[in-house]
Amino acid sequence: MIEEQIEKKIEDAYKEKFPVSKERHEQLINYIPGGATRSLSYFKPYPIHIDYGQGAYVYTHEGHKLLDVTNAYGAIVHGHGDPDVVRAVRDGIAKGSQYSTPTDGQYKLAKLLCERVPGFDKVRFLNSGTEATLFVMRTARAYTGKDKILKMIGGFHGTHDSVAASTKKNVITAGIPEGMTEAILEVPFNDFDALEKTVKENASELAAVIMEPFLGAGGVVLPKPGYLEHVRKVTSDNNVLLIFDEIFSYRVNTGGCQKLFGVIPDLTTVGKVVGGGLPIGVFGGKEEIMNIFCHENTEKPLYHSGTFNGYETVMQAGYAALSKYDEAAVAYVNKLGDQFKNGLLESFKANRLNIQANQIGSLLNIHFVNEPITNADQVLKSEEQLHRLMHLSLLNKGIFTIPRGLFILSTAITEEEIDLLVNKIDETLKELLPLIEEKYNHLLL
Question: What CATH code is assigned to 84-324?
Fold first, then answer.
């Protein structure tokens, strides 16, 4: 069969190109189950091992140079080893990494975020996106005195129990008590009527709607015109808080999607690029809500602590990264995203393919689906085998990307490298075309 021939050719090329990764995987698996401490890092036949990164590239132990369009799943925006971030970390950590007190670094980064993000009057720092969404949901419940939270099907908000047990593709929910999700409601993204109906029916018990302004890990599914405005009006009209989870989406604008679309939530989470490549989570919102943490305003403030919250070295790295992620930098990397999408659309047409490239700013997701994608159910229809083979084939061709077809750009990438990326994807699609013609002809024009 053509599928077996193509699969064998691509896998054999991968094994031949990355033998040291196999050796290191077989060593690591003795100490880390599965050989990867992030579930997303594992793929068959074995995960690639990276030695180091510099600028727009990562380098393997075999000595291969790969164009990096994963950028730590969105946590890196200026490429690897950015000199300003490196200098901030080096100079900062020489003074001591953490003092367990308020610091100047916390002040500078908090001030910058509050100046940029419309929904931020005040913020608090944590160490991951998962922590940020956990605490923002707790904040909403504490402030409103209500327990239920509504999320979007396909929306990803980390791995704490109450949101991990969702319908997101490939999330394993074993070990999560059934009771953890009793207060979680779900509706399809971009469904105006389902959102309004569910909010109205549960308003007396509903603390908040939590949502990504576009589905990020769920496939870069963009909101329909007027959808975010509709959610804002429905929540406001029914005395329900609106939370924007902008951990993934923040990079599209200096003020996140809420500034881009002009829709301001009550509470917001950010992370990833905000840490300059180091671990961070941030949540914040309107002053009257965030003041429930304020010792000056209440005798029993809501408790929120953590050994590494506001870790000074992270504050310094984040401030250095965000300071140079200004309007010009955002415009540049978003222009690269537009160039990337336009190049892909030309490739799809030339190869007679009816597949999708969902893009906003520096984020793009290819879907092997033959219709425009507006919800998570359509994302689930994307052909997994084609994603798997495309990923391995691109690695063989010097492109380091994410198995599910997600591409994340950095300011370190040039227009010439975008052309290179498009060409390598075009080569891969041509490599897969006989298989598509035989088994997936619904994807042909």
Answer: 3.40.640.10
